[in-house]
């Protein structure tokens, strides 16, 4: 008999939400263990640098979780309310609002509170465990193994289902032995290096494009954040989460173009220094920030894993590459996926079928709720990464109408299929390239959404579906890259 009904590998946000969802849907009737590599006083920490993140989450995603599994977030885990996100063009002449109302979270306090809630629901924890792999019986995953860092002794626990929430570079996923459908490793072009500071500051020049206490600000700029963006997210009138993300190969290209040798850390310092609204910045030494006030980490910016289950094994959050491809926001997708996954787990256990077939519905449910749009956004992200600052500024100013902004605000690909047909004058070859690129990604997005809406109902149809997907994506990625030449 298994030690637990469910083992959740990884005690971060995706892991604890999933545990709470399983507990909710099972009326607290299942035995659940969360295994975390971090010490108990720093639960769910992503790395030694802390919980490197923009700390922002939409109200819509939090409400999705609260309405279904009755977990309500309040102060102090919510540190500041925001009205939305404003994305500024490189020339700052155009600002596009998206994502609606949201919250700035305290990522050091949140896991502490999450863990208290979990314990009240009867969920067990074990800390300082370095998991090295899964335990198998035939084609089924039946547990986890590793080393207890406290005792240096081997660690082994068995369960009916293992949920992988160990993060973007998951060793469990990388070494998965019972599936040819789950993608094991991520392409480095689908990773961004991100870094940020949590700081107090004195008010400098009043400029709402540089700091706005009511809005999370995003700066698109290929010189300061090549392949990514800079962000200035308010935590109070005099407190900020400021950082940026870059794609490594595009950073190398930028350095060559400008004759520089910058890395993420040097760009972070430059981005902070040039912000005229922020004067005398200093790292927060508040107890709830002290282990989390600066750092660099990697985040995925692609569609979720093409298949997220195998026999006895499921993935959630960063392990499944769920952060939004267009802005690398990972908290919202993790809340949605964790909430969905809890219901899928309980149904599979009630049906006594934890095979690949028995767990398959999770793929379908996540795609229906959220995942249908991510491949199109991945393609759109690759197009924007190829553009120069001039092209991005022109495109944002001239090609984004009200309907497109509404799409972006919902986290969907804007519809550019009518570009050039609505009496729009596109001047110059550069701008025709932008229009052609946007029109192309829009058309491909429509196909991709349809394809995801026809995700196979069971594993037998997956290989054909996936082969068609990759043929289309490979062709589209090559075409989009050509727009940047």
What about the largest sheet?
8 strands, mixed
The mean pLDDT is 94
Terminal CA distance: 60 Å
What general form does the structure show? globular
- Give unreliable regions as ranges: 420-427
Radius of gyration, in angstroms, nearest whole number:
22 Å
Q: Would you tell me the structural class of the helices and strands?
A: alpha+beta
Count up the domains.
Answer: 3
Helix content: 25-40%
**Mind telling me the CATH class of the largest domain?**
Alpha Beta
> Strand content of the residues, in percent?
15-25%
CATH superfamily of the largest domain: FAD/NAD(P)-binding domain
Known CATH architecture of the largest domain: 3-Layer(bba) Sandwich
* CATH topology-level fold name of the largest domain: FAD/NAD(P)-binding domain
Q: What's the count of strands?
A: 19
How many DSSP helices? Answer: 14
How are the SSEs ordered, and which strands pair?
Blueprint: E1 4-9, H1 13-25, E2 32-35, E3 56-58, H2 59-69, E4 78-82, E5 84-88, E6 95-98, E7 102-105, H3 109-120, E8 124-126, E9 129-137, E10 140-148, E11 153-164, H4 171-174, E12 191-203, E13 215-219, E14 229-236, E15 239-246, H5 248-258, H6 264-273, E16 278-283, E17 294-300, E18 309-310, E19 313-315, H7 331-350, H8 356-359, H9 361-369, H10 374-386, H11 389-398, H12 402-409, H13 429-453, H14 462-483
Parallel strand pairs: 1-2, 1-11, 2-8, 5-13, 11-19
Antiparallel strand pairs: 3-7, 4-7, 5-6, 9-10, 10-11, 12-15, 12-16, 12-17, 13-14, 14-15, 18-19
